[in-house]
Amino acid sequence: MVDTPKDGATKSTRTQPTGSRRPLRRHRPREETRALLLATATNLAIERTRPESAKLHNPLADIRIADVLAEVNRRNPDEKKLTTGAFYQIWPDQAAFQRELMSHVMDEIATPGAGQIQALAFELVADGKAPEEIFRQISEADFRWTSASPELFLALGLGALAPVDMVRDAQAGANERYVNETDHLLSILLRYARRRLKSDRTMEDLIWAIEALSVGYLLRSRTHPDIPKRTDTNGWSVLASAYLGVVHAFSEPLPEDTEESETPS
């Protein structure tokens, strides 16, 4: 006897029309899932840093004032505890604090080791060292001092990820000081080396080219610290050779009949 379903009931084993059958959901393999999640997370991170993003990502947003206050109080247990009231007497909101924090970070690394570099350069000039040797020593010394600065790497990360307008505003003063101090030093060293900028290049061109070179090697040194330090048969590091190459690419020897002071001022 055939078992007939009661009115209104449907046997689970009854075959449904082909057109209404739900497609079988494919079970995604673990490694495929891993790749999908990583790719999607990467795309989200990129989208949040694009200038056209509806809500620009600010890496400093993770620095909450409550955490800063707690850390200040922890480090200064014998002093009166700071509260949010003290914060709001200075900044109207978290966003204003983050903007000033960005400027502070950029100011901290505006001219890292500038005083030491200038003192070293003038000492080498006073000792009558060859211009190429001076460029070698100051490039390597500058790299040692800046690579030891955690603030510098923080600033590089913020410059790459924070909203463009915020970075531009924060760096305005820092960039001006950096250019002025570096201009002064390089102008002296070029005169000492009896060189001058090429007619179609400016000191600012040279300064930013050197900075781009230095930043590139600083970032590479985080994963491959040996790369900028590799030396040739004369003891010159890769970094120093590249630095001198940039200086020579943007400048030219002075004509023989040109008089230039060789004394730092």
Automatic annotation (TrEMBL):
Residues 10-19 have a biased composition (Polar residues). Residues 1-31 are annotated as: Disordered. This is Tetracyclin repressor-like C-terminal domain-containing protein.
